[in-house]
Specification:
The chain is an alpha+beta fold. 40% of the residues lie in helices and 14% in strands. The strands form eight sheets. A five-stranded mixed β-sheet has the order 2-4-3-5-6, sandwiched between helices. A five-stranded antiparallel β-sheet has the order 17-18-19-25-22, covered by helices on one side. Strands 1-13-10-9 form a four-stranded mixed β-sheet.
Length: 878
Amino acid sequence: MQTYARVVFGLVVGSALVFSQSGCGGSNSSGLTAATVAAADDAPAAEAVSEPADESEHPANRLASEASPYLRLHAHNPVDWFPWGPEALQKSIDENKPIFLSIGYSSCFWCHVMEREVFENAEIAAYMNEHFVNIKVDREERPDLDDIYMLALQVYLQAVGSPEGGGWPLSIFLTPDGYPIAGGTYFPPEDKPGRAGFPNVLRTVQTIWSTREEEVRGSSEILAAEVRRLSRPPLTLEPMPLHADLVVQATSAVMQQYDPEFGGLDFSPLQPETPKFPVPSRLNLLQSRLRAGHDESVAAALDHSLEAMADGGIYDHLGGGFHRYSTDRRWLVPHFEKMLYDNAQLVAVYSDAYSRTNLDLYRHVAEESVAFVLRELRDTEGAFHSALDAETDGIEGALYVWTRDEIEQLLGSEESPLFAAAYGLEVDQTFEHGLILHRPQSFAETARQLQLPEAVLSERLSDSREALLQVRQQRPALLKDDKVIVAWNGLMISALARAGSILGRPEYIESAEEAALFILARMRDADGRLLHTYCQTRAYLPAYLDDYALLVQSLLDLHQATGDDQWLTAARHLMDDQVSLFWDTAGGGFFYTGRDHELLLARTKEAYDSVMPSGNSVSVLNLVRLAQVTGESSYQELARDTLKTFSPQLARSPGSMPAMAIALSEYIAAYGAEAAPALIAAAPDNPGTATDDASGDDDGELTPLATSMANVMSSMPQYVSTAVYLDRDLLIAGEAARVAIVIDVVDSWHINANPPHPDFVKPTELLLPADSSFALGEVVYPEGEGLMIEGFDEPVVVYEGQVVLHGTIIPSADLAAGETTLSLELRYQACNDRTCTRPLKLILAGNITIGDGTMTPTAINEAIFAVTEPDGAETDGN
């Protein structure tokens, strides 16, 4: 780590490229009547993405011959763009120029902004062309490159201490070997207060490359090594039994991200106003738990979330379907792009919810979303296109919003007040380009307030929606990305097969069969191998793991819906091909790329869910289904081995792997669980470890406020288990109480001591969130032990095994009596003798009682304070 610090932190680029402006996110409404859908079917569809209108100013570059609609959008930039491939990589090597890699996608708003502001600027382009080899990538065509270099960007930003995260456009500089140097997301065309413009960024990178190339290459190799390490599952210290405790833990982690006020499963009380995503994998986990048995709290959270999304502006109340995500907590203002993968998954979610509840709202949302996809995204040959853009003439959301004058003029003085009341147009909104349709309350409540029968109101609103939709369809059409991607089509085929069966809509199943036949017939190479995408009348690029996994799942769903064995046969053949191409014979589980894939910086193998469920999780579900329907034990063995590979990650970070938790649940339902001890268990001679028994009685048992084996807010492995203990059963506002944090570091790893030595390493640190209603007194950190590490000239002071931190916690004097939540934040960096993780953050939260002045606290956890508290650990909090 010392070399890393000396090189990476010492580079000038570290201070120049550590920011990014708003990028496209990316890690998560009622409906129309049949009359509205029928009217919309006759409206013109969205246009496919095409080149800019003025092609004369700059001649076409290499991207003009690419199939990707996103790449063709850049075909007349003055930038001398290359697609990713041998020509560009060899040019970089031959001329010893760094690579500027720009990754985006066609419906990304900030990608379009950077193109207009930066890549169409002739002066900026000239500098790029002279000093860099410039490569443009469509992330939807090359998710392998996007995964690797997004991880590289995140590693870089963390290394230089930037608070920024990833996003798109992904803008990253590489050595000719493809190793990461530095990067960000969106860069403006000129310097702004607190942030460098892209010309300054270019000059900085060029300067350090031309003057300090050897150092840059050294730091890039270290960054690349960290990317490779993080691209694989972490070290498995001991086998993890396949037990239902892991499923329960994952469900609990997802429920911790539930927003009790506005619904949704992508919420943090520490950052309440960050964007909220629908996160279908988490919705599916809760739904799967309800199929296993009713849980009132889970059902309430799930239904609240589904209803809030269906009522919000994230849902298109005129045309059906969901936008990408909400920019606010209330689901009101969406990021307006519409993606096939979002709508496919949400059709399945709402169909399953209708099957569970028989609520008409869920049925309507599912049917209207299907109508949107069939109308706007279906190819003439039966498959499905990828996305609709968010902007019209550079204005995001312009297609979807209205003014009050427009509504009144179109609907008239009699109908417009009803529509305004039902769709939230009477209240002030913050979106600068117009009013967003949403439902602030149910139609039943609106009907009561308007003193109308609900059926009458519903019919009149249906007519109004139809009239407005007809007008909206005459507005300039959105750009459409007309790529056909196998994985995304697999999701849609599954959704149609399931929705068709649940809702009694055989035409949905027929549409699913047409799409499946297109892929199986048209998206293969000469050897029969599946290809990833189809556009401009040709299929190309070898398919990835999620292409195989999600297509197999869709074929199994078709087999279940139709009973036709052709779908089962096709699923088995593809599953066998997937095993041959992607299976990791040494470590278990499936790689993301096939064994014959292009050699890249890393070959990833992961199970974290992003906007879609991970390929490994879906593969386990497929293998279990195939084992049951065919009776072949090899499928069960592959499912078991995949679960074994990723179960330690599931234990460490359960909230980020809901699809794997579903897969484990299905495996256990089919084959039973392995015997497993409690995930966090007490040892008789170890007073610092949490116990499952929180009774706090007098026999020496301990009562933890909070325990954790993973940070549910992070998708990173944690390497520690943690427990928090207070010295009393309730707190009094304004009075200090003692707190102990017990940290158990896994074998062969250590965390840095506090104070740190050497001083550039990240110390272990206990903090409170900025908006906490508590104060944290002086924290007493124990002395660490010196550890000699290769590359360091002196010992590094570290904590190994178990360590206990002591301090005081003081509730605010004006904190009201009653139950509240105490959250603590533990920051640390874990290392072993070969590598260090990035700095990690663990949130520990537990419910405590604030006494009302008449209540007397009772001492608890005396053993841990008596046995392990060092001299002088008590403080008065001042």
